[in-house]
Amino acid sequence: MRTKVLLLPTGPSAWLRNLVDGLGIAFVAWFALHYATQRIYADAAYFLMQVADQGSFHVINGRWIIVLTQWLPVLGAQLGVSMAALITLFSLGNVVLLVLCYVFVSIRLRDRESGTALVAVQVVGLAHALFCPIFEFYYGALLLVVFRAVWKTDLLSPVVRWSLLSVLFVLVISSHFMGLVVMGLTLLLDRAWDHKRLAAWLGVLLVAQLIQRSLTLSAYEANAFGNVLLGLERAGVGWAFVPGRLWAKFLHTLFHYPDVLLFGLYIAVALMRRKDRWGLFVFILGALTIYTASTLYLADTTQSYYREIVDQPLAVWVILVLFARGTGPAPSRYAIPALVFLALTFRMVRTSEVAVAYVKRTAFIEERIATARAIGIQRGLVLEGPVLQPSGHGVAPLPYMSPMEALLLSARQGPDSIVVLIPSKETHPTHAFTQRIDSSMAQFGMEFPTGIGPYFKMPTTNFEVLR
């Protein structure tokens, strides 16, 4: 299964692959720079806030791959850069990792197909989730592509190859439960048991990782598993395949993931034409497994950043099979880069459309910060905000205010300019109300900084209504 791929492929298809790879990397980089202040949406703001306050990595749920999202802002915090620069560094995290992985597989391993696969897993199936670029499998998918490139190469010494495979394997399977599932499916697709010693070693690592995670399972992860088990108990696996559910999921896929659907159709046709029974069987098995797990975990098909996070493993699986089994005779050398080009074009348009609502949202928060400063409010209650409805079919509106995002945006003016804003319906806040809010912040996931770091000098005034 080991192959050598030319660094600069010859023939008419070379320019198309180079165009797709260059355009994809350029788009991801431009997006990170242009929408840096919008990319601290939801959980992203929490992690960046913790990194800035502590000046070090913030890892939860035993998912150490999150370090890859934080090393740039940690470096920036250690160097004392401004909050504005810190936000930009945070946004560039996935771009830098993409470039490093791309250079490694394309130049060191001479595997241009894996290079294009790296670009694909960063854009295909994603729009809203790009504004919250800290979900673990986003990075696990990159490392999974690198893992497979290392698995099939003969350009590395045995010691280096085994070491890289070991590290990449552990990082991917520990990134998320679906990372473990997709890794297992990938090894099944590639008939890993043909490499007996290596497969046995990965089995040892898997057992060790499972034991470690079972002993340190967090409440968040236990709840996630509980949701799936509850779905199984109440409705069973068959519920995911009733006609109404399948139709709703098909429409959801058609409206939001036509790129993934196109890839899947191409794979099915290509594998049937080549009579690749094993590839077709594992592809369908993987798709059904991931679909069932994601449906039992989150049945609602209302589109949002979190819905995309839950759906991404299926998109990654389709991409992996596309590059593992979709390549072959001459037509595929044009077809696959062309498919990725179409998907990239679609994603560039789609993300630009949904970005309008995220830009308006950031503008509203910044306007509230400016108003609070103008009237001397350091801690304010925002009673209402605009309806922020991204374009698209069945898309959830965005929350108009996030306390952690407001905190980070206000910190760009320096630690003495901090403004704390929270959404609330309270029109006559008292001192007791402020005390109650302060004591209950953590339980609602709003764990504000301690104020001991250089970026946040937290105000202690009572909350006032911001009109």
Strand order of the largest sheet: 2-1-3
Structural class: mainly alpha
How would a textbook summarize the main sheet?
Answer: 3 strands, parallel
Form type: globular
Rg, nearest Å: 23 Å
The number of helices is 18
Distance between the termini: 65 Å
Which band does the percent of strand residues land in? under 5%
H-E order: HHHHHHHHHHHHHHHHEHEHE
Please report the total strand number as a whole number: 3
The average pLDDT value, as a whole number, equals 89
- What percent of the residues sit in helical stretches (DSSP H or I)? 55-70%
The unreliable regions are 1-10
Molecular structure report:
This protein is an all-alpha fold and 467 residues long. Helix 17 links the parallel strand 1 and strand 2. The chain is globular. It starts with 12 loop residues before the first helix and ends with a strand. It contains 18 helices and three strands. The N terminus is likely disordered. Strands 2-1-3 form a three-stranded parallel β-sheet. Helix content is 65%, strand content 2%.
